[in-house]
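We modelled the chain as a single entity of 394 amino acids. Its sequence is:
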Amino acid sequence: MQEPNAKSTQNPLVLTFDVGTQSARALLVDKNGDIIGETKKAYERPYYSLHPGWAEQDPNYYWGVICEVSKKLKSEFEDVWSDIIAVTSTCIRATTVCFDKEGKPVRDAILWLDKRKAENMPPLSKKSALAFKLAGLTVAVNTLRSQMAGNWLIMNEPETWNKTHKFALLSTFFNVMFSGVMKDSVANMIGVLPYDTKNRKWLDKKNILRGVYLMEDEKLIELVNPGEIIGKITKQAAQITGIPEGVPYIVTGSDKMCETFGLSCDDESCAAISLGTLATVQVPTKRYFSLKSILPPYNSLTGDYLSEIQIFRGYWLISWFKKEFAAKEVEDAKILGCSAEELLNKRLREIPAGCHGLILQPTFTPDPITPARKRFRYRIVGYPYAHSFISCHY
């Protein structure tokens, strides 16, 4: 990791931004890793859907929230704001952005939640098709190909694709907005782009998996290692965020990778549990192996790999439950001066294990390896309390 040029300060601080699916926050962290200041804002609309299953958002909407939380944090910690020696950010994975030659979005971002599928895809080469067939992966590969946002854009929005100079991730967009540099960390890369996780580079054209992606290599950006300083806060970014101009900007990795690293989970003896919109369990390992067929592990911030199990819309289930079933608890929590989650936890402890016969199978969406899996199913035998729903154990 590159070291920023430390300014003459007794308490150097790092300003970091965490852009999630439902909210964004800004944090000031000191040299001991302690958070000395934090501010957060929930999105008014996390995404919009032009069609069922679609999920899109204007990248500039996220940037506007970043600017807002940054200025708010500055107003609350103006006395130490000049102690910032570096800026960094982390954000949601697998959210793609089309960039023009000036680094501006050509269209709104396609979120990781998006479930559109490309149809009438051109066939794989005979050699690739035979190899996948012999490996029993024909269905998995065809499912993967149909789910790639880039493939969908090429098939359905050719005019947009022709205007696209680079096809990258939301993290890349933030890198551009902060520093003016269109590069990204290998720890941000994910399978929506033709990335070789094992070798930490773009897939070679000779790699059999390259045929999953229709996009041209020239639309790929330059990759760097996490921890690198790729530029400095630009004058324009400084004006709208309140961050001092010229502060080094460091690339890190995606939100899940940063969570695992922040939990000091760095070998196979430790598992990191993340209760975000996508609930995950990650285990760091030096070994490269796939938990599910051709789906690779992720790159970590330290150069190792991260094996991961996912539950789609994991913590969003709580948000959904609060909205649909816990209106009373939400109002009661306001009166008591606590969060609705705290009150719901208290209610859960009042309910015997077993959920009065309610069983929840948290397979809310299929994946490329099990594309026919049902979204979810449950059985109710007596259901006296609505909040019994979330007391069941996965």
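As a brief sanity check on the tokenised model: Residues 316-391 form one domain. The CA atoms of residues 58 and 108 lie 5 Å apart.
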